[in-house]
Structure prediction request, 249 residues.
Amino acid sequence: MIPDPEGLILAAFAAFCRIGGCFLVLPGFSSARVPQMVRLLIAIAVSFAILPLMWNDIYPKSRLAGSAYVSMIFIEVAIGVVLGLITRYYILGLQFAGTVISMMIGFNAPPAGDVLEDSAESQITNLLGFAALLVLFMLDFHHQVIVAIVDTYKVMPPGAGFDPQKALVTLTDTLSATFMVMLRLSSPFIIYSLLFNVAIGFINKLAPQMPIYFISTPYLLAGGLFLMFLGIAAMLSLFGDAFRTIFTG
Prediction:
């Protein structure tokens, strides 16, 4: 017989709020291609797996009065969302890099449906985003996220409050570090586009009567796709290596 069923339910719901808030925005799990019931069951399963480990931290706070418990629930959700947004921003950064690469190599095809979300993206962005998410799952990034959730109970225990300034600083630092990583990944294509267009500009000065734009675009696209063929493995490797630094840093 459970000695305190009410406390067990309140503690489980408090754990679910932090974990569910994280899974709400976590890449892969929050995809539009994953049914909502599956996401809910995953969050519940992880919550019940973590609850016995963090019982001494969660259960005492679940006995708070009504308004204090409701306030704690909102804080738990906010903490989980901030933790999930760190990974979300990293994936969104790669989508931004994919858009930059598409522009640099002249790949201006109409956007198609996103593989992961209900939005329209270019084919290169779709390719990079899906491949990068696959690499992160191969590197067990979701295990790192679960470990980070457990660690947050030591740094930000339930009922201790929420510091919005610290959360904003964390997200800002994540965006800054993500931008530098994505700039490094897309820099070969930026340099390629710059050199190619400068060379085409010189050719246009030498032969102004030639329709240089229509002649140069196929070569720009072919060279850019060949450059991606040569470098996409290194790009995804660097992307996976930088994730641990950004997420734990």
